[in-house]
Fold these 3 entries.
Entry 1:
Amino acid sequence: MCGIIGYLGKKHPKDVLLSGLKNLEYRGYDSAGIALINKDTTQIIKSVGKISELEKKINSTDLINSNVGIAHTRWATHGEPNEINAHPHKVGKITIVHNGIIENASTLRDSLIKEGVEFNSSTDTEVIAALLNKYYKDNMEDAINKTIKAIDGSYALGIICDDEPDKLYAVRCESPLIIGIGKNEYFITSDIGAIISYTRKYVLLGANEIVSIDKDGYKITKDNKEVIREVNTSELTSESADLMGYEHYMIKEIMEEPVLVNNIIQKYKDNLDKLPDVKKYKHIHIVGCGSAYYVGMIAKNFFEDDGLDVQIDVASEYRYRNIKYNKNTLVILISQSGETADTIAAMRKANDKKIDTLAIVNVDGSTIARECTYKVLIEAGREVAVATTKAYILQVLLLSLISYKINPDKEYLKDLVKLPSQLKVLLDKTGFHKKLADKVYRKNDVFFIGRKIDYAICLEGSLKLKEVSYIHSEAYQAGELKHGTISLINKGTVVFAIITDDDIRDKTISNLEEVLSRGAKAIYIGNKKEKYRNKIIVPRIHKKLQPLLVVPPLQLISYYVAYKRGCSIDKPRNLAKSVTVE
Ligand code: F6R
């Protein structure tokens, strides 16, 4: 949550910071702000709402001359999203931006108040700024070291100081932060995507390592000893962070799916040895949050069909469960960002017990990618829209391939190579999906029903719809509806029935009939023609690939419904792309 960018170089920081913030806006968009510094002044400009609001304010302000600045886009944790609570925060000589949560902030605040500090905001960030200011004599590293010893929690901090206007400092623990290396210019940022149009070279900052940057370069220290870290080159291109003519990232990212799916198929279909050998484990635990958890629900069905014993949990529950691990266990962590706080905690719980962990992850270099025993990168490129689409699809594909490796069968391979073109044909039917969206966008309540893998698909279809369109939606195991929830089915209630599994087809059809006889408007999605008026018929394909042809139409329908309702599609209210707090 929250995005940080900082700049030191020959340019005026304004444009770099604003373009960086626009790229980081997916991490939170309650409020935003920038701070610029020169030897006479530290200028802070903040605003509530999206970056466009901040931009308007900046453009109507006389900016100081400067070569150093920090900026922040916020997803509120401590304190409501207003201008006072927006970052940067300045206390005395110190101005900072912060991503993370300080758990002992209120105790620290109380003792600082007793020492005479006056606080303006209700943020934990202002407490950090006050501590830095208290400890700062003339050595910033020293002040940072004392401050990080006093605070508990997660933090990535960008720091500037009135007494050192030519310098930029940063430190991190738990929350991500990297150093971007340009030509005579340096950046700090939560995400390489924010600086990719300036440089692809970056350095990862380890936990509690402090970087100090000036025009001659950067130096990393930990406990006052210098640390040398390798310079990496990002594969990301500036196009991948561009809309490329699409109106929203969500639709752009859905439309990228056939190519990305094809890339993964070409990479692995004849090289299964590159994928982890899950067969050697007797027990599989699958853990993730939100859509990543729903990917896990699909994978659970794959692995159970392969004869493995599978448990699945959302990470926020798993991390607090009493689990008796068996040595023959593999814990699979599914995460697009690789920075989801609960999923990281779940991973560390298993790592601490010396249980093997496998990351199915998009962002290389992220905490989960770095700390798992094994990793498989899903290679989705940058996913900007807050609601995941292409990353979900690639996670399912990779887990399907891992399952195929356990249990190879010829039919799977035949179907696998057909998948990208079938997906493309489906996605090209935009007019058809728009018409279906017409039937949904005025509704208040929508239900999704299915069984087994189809139920797992329902969960994702329902989440996608509600998060981007704000329509109330629920996914139910088709057989469970009549145990209470069917009382909500009314004349005109939309019910999506997903039926792709022949073994339970007749059962779900009966459940669909039950809701139809209570006045529901059914939308049937399946791989076999049925009598229903509103339907999406997808090509019939191997069971372990079938979700990859059912979920994309649901993503498209969610997009068009949200579009018709005029929603903030790429940045739905209250959400953030990367949930780095508990
Ligand atoms: C929904 C969505 C979220 C994420 C969840 C986990 O569209 O994007 O539910 O799937 O927050 O995030 P990652 O995958 O980054 O761990």
Entry 2:
Amino acid sequence: MTDKSIVEQKLRDLGDSTPERVAARFAEVRTRFDEDANRQSANLEAWRSFVVQWTGRKSGMLTHITDNWLKPASPELKRVVGQELNQLKAHVESVLAERQTAIEAAAEQSARTRDQIDFSLPGIEHAIGTRHLIRQTYDDLLRIFGAIGFSVVEGPEIETPYYNFEALNIPEHHPARDNMDTFYIEGSRTGHVLRTHTSPMQIRTMEKQAPPVRIVVPGKVYRRDNPDATHGYMFHQIEGLAVDTDITFCDFKGTVDYFAREFLGPKTKTRLRPSYFPFTEPSAEVDATCHVCGGKGCRVCKQSGWIELFGAGMVNPAVYGFVKYDAERLSGFAFGMGVDRLAMMKYGVAEVPLLFQNDVRFLRQF
Ligand code: DAH
């Protein structure tokens, strides 16, 4: 704070009665101003109050000097005091103006430094997850079938025996029911089951939708298997169904070939082996040339050159009867893939449990 005691007194009281004394007094004030001005740092608030102390209209130093030194000055000294005061004013104003810019720049600079982010500090690392291998495989499958016009539908995991079996042409006591050791829901009067396959969605879709139908159905299915390296009580399937007035066995084989090439590589060939499913006639197991050896025979394909992909076939006309489709006019094909199997085969995973133990060391590899 600038000491105001001298400017609050009259020159006469200070004993300054000659031009020399007046000049010396002004020199003293000017020195004090210069010293104070030099002390100002990048603190904007201190700077503003310093400016007010000197140029404030009501009680700044210059006002005090005008009021206490100039106005009451004796006629002989008035001219000198006036000159000195004008010079001091000019000096103060020019120094203040000059320093103002520097102080503002410095203040801005120091604010910038204060707010600066230190990029060398270690940040908070968020672990980024990956899509699970099963999810990746599903995405792949949905992309492949989506590209040729199949849309995706999903259905309930708790099913009625009608949809899981009957309407798929698997009547009670049919041996096919034995192959699918079924979980029955306790206490369900209608005998609800955990679906053993995604095929029930063939029926649910055709019940609701008039032909043509072109769908894939991803989802979980359940079977009472004892868990081991190749079995769990739950696994993933994707069902496919295409029904229209003009679908032939060629369309079926063409779709199968397209899928195999997309999923395993452009050189992949397929073959069909006769099989049996109650809801397809004829039925087939689709094999593909081994994606590891290309068909020459290796450990992965157990030297056969072939890998079993999935079950499929032409929709059994008996199924159309359950959904009131015209079996005379319509034809189609269906398939059911084990997604876990496909993923394990494609990525060389040896044991089912690895897929579901959620060990990041395993998951990270894909
Ligand atoms: N639902 C059969 C199963 O889980 C798989 C299957 C085979 C589905 C042939 C089909 C098909 O749609 O045509 O074993």
Entry 3:
Amino acid sequence: MTERRFEGVGATPTLGVGTARWFRPVDVTDLDEPPAPKSVDPAAERERFETAQAEAKTELETEREHTRERVGDNEAKVFDAHLQFLQDPQIVSGVQEALDAGVPAPHAVKTAFEGPIAQFEGMDGMMAERADDLRDIRDRLLRLLTDATRTDLGALPDDSVVLAELLTPSDTAQLDPEAVAGLATTKGGRTAHAAIIARSLGIPAVVGIGEQLDEIDDGTDLVVDGKDGVVIADPTESTRTRAKESTQTAVIDEAVTTGDGTEIEVAANLGTPAEAAPAAEQGADGVGLFRTEFLFQDRQSAPDETEQYKAYLSVCETFSEHADDPRIVVRTLDVGGDKPIDYLDLDPEENGFLGARGIRLSLDEHADLFESQLRALLRVAATDAGSGLSIMFPLVSTVEELEAALEVVDSVADDLDGEGLDYAIPELGVMIETPSSTYLADAFAERVDFLSIGTNDLTQYIQSAQRDLDRMSDYQDPLAPAVLRAIDRTVRAGHEGGAWVGMCGEMAGDPELTQLLVGLGLDELSMSAVTVPGVKAAIRETETERAEALAESVLAVDTLTGVQELL
Ligand code: PEP
Ligand code: MG
């Protein structure tokens, strides 16, 4: 039998080998024609709806706890959003109006969700994915109202590769990483909640494969290659062996060097303090990017200085138990663009990615949040566990912004001094995410200790292709020559200015690119914790001189396919 390849988008950059098991939930929206209005009792239907709503709430709360324990606080937050949608006044009043008019509860629910789902579907990127969340809640209610049975995704046989049209966050959170060897879906993008949960559970996943996935029958042998974004059906023995070997990368607890002794720090990207311990257990030397916005999302108001102090300190403490002097890079609030926060009342913008986001908000309308965050960070930096804490500013695009941010750091330090509180000004750094910042890297390097390249945004801006649009995925490859040249320019300028240069975009976590990144001169690579062992192993196999020669030849190529062929 010959191998068949199904291309999609890699959501978890690991590989898995197993057997196809289709998950086809019953279509609960396929309802019978409603009976004539007068033949149903509105009071009984209202009670039926309220019971289903209460049951849905209990289910969601249980799943939130389950996800919090197994995956993390951050991923559990999707269930908070679902709980809010469940009580959304617009939807609930829509249901009630239909019930009052004598419509049976299931039909009332189906109709009341139609408008809000269509509204989100008409939006771009991450907002469009909220339509999936709404469908998830609607279908939960319909399942409860129609007594449809639910497939138990938590009880699959070992080595299952789950195939589905689209998994909801609730479906994905049920998956047991011990039993599930992989996941592949027809629809969905990298930033859908289901993909994020799969990544946190360390389940190899490829999403957005399209209708051709239907050609795979239950029971087919599969390799899910989340690195290359491909599912291979009926793999040959050598493909299986290669995949199996790469799934068995052992954790390397100590710092690593290349074969010839160049030290490369391998750090983890975190969203919440709860992710610190699992990341340290994967052998991360420290944290290269703590995305603090997750502390601010899905709640009614911003965390105060004390809550932030505890959160940052706890990450530092967790890592100090695993490593000597770990570096913990905390990024100041990076909201706006694709990361909305309701209580901040950010002005809606036609193109949020080019609007008020990242440091721009911290220096303007949200200067108060920036100050309280810096106060918490400077205080943690003065503790024993916090001695390796570093602060990084997101989306800096001008020297003026950086200077303004540094002035705020100084003035916060003066305030803390005046109040007699312990504080320390730690290492400071800048994210390189915009084209302008790559041209100014030398000027930044003279003013801060380090630069960290965020290839997710950098690729979006250099290639002028929105990062969360599936349609633009051909442009979103960080191996595009223009992106590689921007990285090269940044590393050189950073080093000349005396700064160390790291990378914390997704590119850093691909072991197949490690040799190239070492050759480009990066000092630190920061990534999802699951990819740390593979990258550490790849660094040990790298020889600096050969890596530099590879980087030089790659930089000379001017097409993406040329680069891919060379690699
Ligand atoms: C990046 O842009 O590469 C990055 C690491 O930041 P985020 O993905 O949080 O925007
Ligand atoms: Mg970014």
